[in-house]
Design brief:
globular; about 0% strand; about 210 residues; mainly alpha
Length: about 210
């Protein structure tokens, strides 16, 4: 199931980026995807399989944290409610699937390696690279739309990340929890969020994709 979901996510992300981010907003999606591919190639050629798996665990924890924020907190749901129906459906569906398989890579890692130090050092490194990549991509997108030097853009970004809905403060505690010996992704039980929905239309992939 994990492999199938990740394959579907990759395919839908590619279509979403091309049709929505690229064609609708005019961004150079291919350049961004090429940079990400080059980064992944470097990772695959430079680190052991165990460390790469630990990096996957770290990234899966990031997506699970953000998914839980979006569906499992009042501010996250308030923010999601600001989306138009199509994008709300995309991100609700994606968040549920991320939570559903959040422990798979971690269980494999524990079975084949299990080193606490490799896992936590990988999280520190992954966090730094993840933040850097997000910043660089965001700057490129703002530049492409002529918004990079507009104070209103940065004020809106500041409020989004730190005030309301306040994504970054909400991630501090679950991020730190990853460094706890004995941590497991399912210590945060998200089954209610995965299985429950007030809108059945949010359960399936949007037809536009």
């Amino acid at each position: 199931m994990f492999v199938a979901q990740e394959y579907r996510h990759a395919a839908l992300h590619e279509r979403y980026n091309k049709e929505i981010v690229g064609e609708q907003f005019g961004h150079d999606v291919e350049a961004i995807q090429a940079a990400v591919a080059a980064r992944l190639k470097f990772e695959h050629s430079s680190f052991s399989h165990e460390f790469q798996l630990a990096t996957t665990c770290a990234l899966e924890h990031f997506t699970a944290m953000m998914a839980h924020f979006l569906l499992g907190t009042a501010r996250g749901r308030e923010y999601l409610g600001m989306f138009d129906p199509f994008h709300r459906k995309v991100w609700t569906w994606h968040a549920k699937e991320e939570m559903e398989h959040k422990g798979v890579a971690f269980d494999v890692y524990q079975a084949v390696c299990g080193s606490y130090w490799v896992r936590t050092l990988s999280m520190i490194r992954t966090t730094a690279i993840f933040i850097l990549c997000i910043i660089l991509i965001y700057l490129k997108l703002l530049w492409g739309r002529g918004l990079l030097f507009k104070p209103a853009t940065w004020w809106a970004s500041f409020k989004l990340l730190l005030v309301r809905p306040g994504l970054l403060p909400s991630l501090v505690v679950p991020w730190l929890d990853y460094f706890r010996p004995g941590f497991h992704p399912w210590d945060q039980n998200d089954n209610t969020l995965i299985n429950g929905s007030t809108d059945p239309e949010m359960e399936t992939v949007p037809s536009r994709l």
